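Researcher: Structure for this, please.
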Amino acid sequence: MTALPCSIVQIFIYMIIVRVVLSWFPATSGGVVAQVSYFVGRFTEPVLDAVRRILPRTGALDLSPLVVLLFLQIVVQRMILRC
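Model: Predicted structure, C-alpha cell format:
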C-alpha cells in the first residue's frame, strides 16, 4: 500500500541530492549539466523555494535542501509512510 508513495518520496530525495551536487559544477548553456539541472530544478524548486521563504537568511549558504531532506526522511518516510 505504501510502496508507491515511498518510491515517489525516495525519487524526490535523489533529485534534491542531484541538484545539490550539480550546483557545484558550472552549467554551460546546452550542456548535460544544464539540461539535468533544469529538469531536476523544475520538480524541486517549488518545494525548496517555499522552505527558503520560511528559513532565516544565512548569506550564501542555502540550507533549504537540508531542511527538506530531513523533513522527508524523518517525518514523511518514518512517521507517516513507515517506509
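Researcher: Any notable elements?
Model: Residues 41-83 form one domain. Residues 63 and 76 are 19 Å apart (CA to CA).
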